[in-house]
Write a structure and sequence with these properties.
This protein has a single domain, classed as Alpha-Beta Plaits, CATH 3.30.70. Helix content is 38%, strand content 37%. The protein is built from three helices and five strands. The mean pLDDT is 88.
Length: 109
């Protein structure tokens, strides 16, 4: 095999991998999912920061406050796409999320 054949082979492998990734990580924007999440915070500035980071996550459709208590709020998170993708998006936006069935805890990284 000469160099041109290797380049062609690697280019085809790259295209195939990218297409597989797109299918596996596809974010559909038709159906939404809900997740009940608790946010624990030390002060109001930290809560504002967390909510600001949440607004930067494009797959989140709505954040609805369900319950308020001292240093802990509960929200209904309405989002598009796969639940498995959320932790990755949260990390990229300075947040951590722990998911247990249909409940979660959100906090700063």
């Amino acid at each position: 095999m000469n160099n041109n054949n290797y380049e062609f082979l690697f280019e085809e492998i790259k295209k195939s991998l990218i297409n597989s990734w797109k299918i596996e990580n596809k974010i559909q924007n038709i159906k939404t999912q809900n997740l009940l999440c608790e946010i624990n915070y030390f002060n109001l500035l930290e809560l504002k920061q967390i909510k600001s980071y949440l607004k930067n996550i494009s797959t989140i459709n709505k954040i609805i406050l369900k319950n308020i208590s001292y240093k802990s709020n509960e929200y209904n998170l309405n989002f598009y796409g796969n639940l498995k993708i959320l932790p990755i998006l949260f990390k990229k936006n300075g947040l951590e999320i722990k998911i247990d069935e249909n409940k979660c805890k959100i906090f700063l990284k």
